């Protein structure tokens, strides 16, 4: 990959219950260069949890990979950032975008957009502890703080604190009355606000996120900002990423097929199973592999009929490929 192409050019959004290490390994068989994010891990889970390794461990194949942290204490976030760096993560990302009630009850996520000075302290504290980039994923605003002027003020504060990169979901978050799912669809997309940010902060890398599903959309956004983050479309249609390395990172074309991806998953599923993991915890993530292709429904049914059985093994994939 050309050294001039940053990994954040195309990235995969952190998604709770979805972007675990199994899905990330699977996606790495499709794209080697896109930047992957973990699910959000709270500071409490790291500092007070009984199984830090379960939250933070990942496969070497997953690089480049960013650890997303959730919290509102600058000191706790800085301590967790240091632990993340020691685990080998390539970036520390602070969650200032999640609108769920559970996250709000912990006083972090999107509600922190109302407290730009605190977020600046969080960034500064993390920057003082690690050498890897510290980034913030945030919304364009929240109800009550939804003007472009509010957004500009927020970004100016975290830029002064040394943030290395902003990932901006181009919707406001409505903190009361909408579910997290509705917050991904109901507030209108305001891409122009993100483009304006890039114009106002030309030296700050800006990635855009929200509602992006096609390569045509990705390419258009990249004429105006530095990176594109894809969320649900990655999970629904993972083979969308089959062309990412060649289109956006200058990598040479490879003969990548869905079947070669399944072949690559066989030893991984075997390893997970032999280490006490459940086969369906892995295979649930690959059901969209044939999205839009003839036989997609049959593929999903073949896996779902078999992967929950107590006797399930990697042979499910072997038998599917040998049909």
UniProtKB/TrEMBL annotation:
Its cofactor is FMN. Keywords: Flavoprotein, FMN, NADP, Nucleotide-binding, Oxidoreductase, RNA-binding, tRNA processing, tRNA-binding. It comes from Leptospira kemamanensis. It is an enzyme of class 1 (oxidoreductase). The active site is at 98 (proton donor). The keyword tRNA processing applies. Residues 12-315 form the DUS-like FMN-binding domain. Catalyzes the synthesis of 5,6-dihydrouridine (D), a modified base found in the D-loop of most tRNAs, via the reduction of the C5-C6 double bond in target uridines. Specifically modifies U20 and U20a in tRNAs. The record marks 95, 181, 184, 297, 300 as: Interacts with tRNA. This is tRNA-dihydrouridine(20/20a) synthase. It comes from the Bacteria. GO terms for molecular function: flavin adenine dinucleotide binding; FMN binding; tRNA binding; tRNA-dihydrouridine20 synthase activity; tRNA-dihydrouridine20a synthase activity. HAMAP family: DusA_subfam (MF_02041). It catalyses: 5,6-dihydrouridine(20) in tRNA + NAD(+) = uridine(20) in tRNA + NADH + H(+); 5,6-dihydrouridine(20) in tRNA + NADP(+) = uridine(20) in tRNA + NADPH + H(+); 5,6-dihydrouridine(20a) in tRNA + NAD(+) = uridine(20a) in tRNA + NADH + H(+); 5,6-dihydrouridine(20a) in tRNA + NADP(+) = uridine(20a) in tRNA + NADPH + H(+).
């Amino acid at each position: 990959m050309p050294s001039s192409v940053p990994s954040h050019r195309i990235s995969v959004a952190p998604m709770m219950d979805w972007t675990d290490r199994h899905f990330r390994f699977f996606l790495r068989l499709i794209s080697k260069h896109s930047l992957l994010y973990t699910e959000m891990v709270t500071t409490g889970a790291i500092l007070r949890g009984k199984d830090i390794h379960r939250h933070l461990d990942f496969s070497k194949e997953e690089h480049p990979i960013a650890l997303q942290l959730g919290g509102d204490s600058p000191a706790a976030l800085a301590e967790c950032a240091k632990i993340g760096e020691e685990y080998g993560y390539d970036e520390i990302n602070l969650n200032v975008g999640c609108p769920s009630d559970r996250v709000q009850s912990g006083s972090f996520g999107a509600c922190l957009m109302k407290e730009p000075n605190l977020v600046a302290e969080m960034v500064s504290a993390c920057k003082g502890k690690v050498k890897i980039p510290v980034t913030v994923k945030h919304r364009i605003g929240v109800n009550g703080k939804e003007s472009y002027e509010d957004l500009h003020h927020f970004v100016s504060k975290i830029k002064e604190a040394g943030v290395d990169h902003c990932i901006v979901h181009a919707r406001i978050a409505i903190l009361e009355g909408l579910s997290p799912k509705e917050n991904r669809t109901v507030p209108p997309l305001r891409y122009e606000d993100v483009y304006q940010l890039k114009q106002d902060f030309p030296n700050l890398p800006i990635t855009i996120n929200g509602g992006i599903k096609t390569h045509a959309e990705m390419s258009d956004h990249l004429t105006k900002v530095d990176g594109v983050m894809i969320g649900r479309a990655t999970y629904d249609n993972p083979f969308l990423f089959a062309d990412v390395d060649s289109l956006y990172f200058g990598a040479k074309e490879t003969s990548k097929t869905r079947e070669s991806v399944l072949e690559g998953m066989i030893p991984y599923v075997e390893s997970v199973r032999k280490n006490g993991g459940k086969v369906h915890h892995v295979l649930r993530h690959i059901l969209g592999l044939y999205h839009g292709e003839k036989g997609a429904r049959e593929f999903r049914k073949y896996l779902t009929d078999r992967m929950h059985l107590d006797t399930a093994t990697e042979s499910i994939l072997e038998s599917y490929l040998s049909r």
